[in-house]
Design goal:
This protein is mostly helical. The chain is built from six helices and no strands. It has two domains: about 5-65; about 65-118.
């Protein structure tokens, strides 16, 4: 029983299930024709019934639904926007600190009234 584990593509699994549903043959005969076991075909059927189009993701990764994909995209976009906001905040703070340290304000205020400067 130390045989190598076979990997089947999503397309193969779906085709096998379609064949099993449309064929007059028994599941055991179809599985044998496909080179797999009846229990494997039965598991594929259960997975497809439970998960629908999200069944058979491949490499252990589950397919995301449309809402999950959009949620992931929005989370990534929000993280980008927050990063941009933080950069702008730092720049504005540094600009304000640099601007307030300039002696120009005091010199101009002594020479001209504040109304003219605004």
């Amino acid at each position: 029983m130390s045989g190598k584990r076979r990997k089947y593509s999503e397309e193969f699994k779906k085709d096998a299930l379609t064949l099993a549903q449309k064929s007059d043959k028994k599941i055991h005969a179809i599985a044998e024709d496909l080179g797999t076991k009846r229990t494997v075909l039965a598991r594929w059927y259960r997975e497809f019934e439970e998960l629908g189009e999200n069944a058979f993701p491949g490499n252990g990764l589950r397919k995301l639904s449309r809402l999950e994909e959009e949620n992931l995209r929005l989370k990534n976009e929000l993280a980008d926007v927050k990063e941009e906001r933080d950069i702008i905040k730092k720049r504005c703070t540094a600009f304000q600190e640099n601007r307030s340290n300039r002696p120009v304000h005091g010199e101009l205020a002594a020479e001209q009234p504040v109304e003219k400067m605004c």
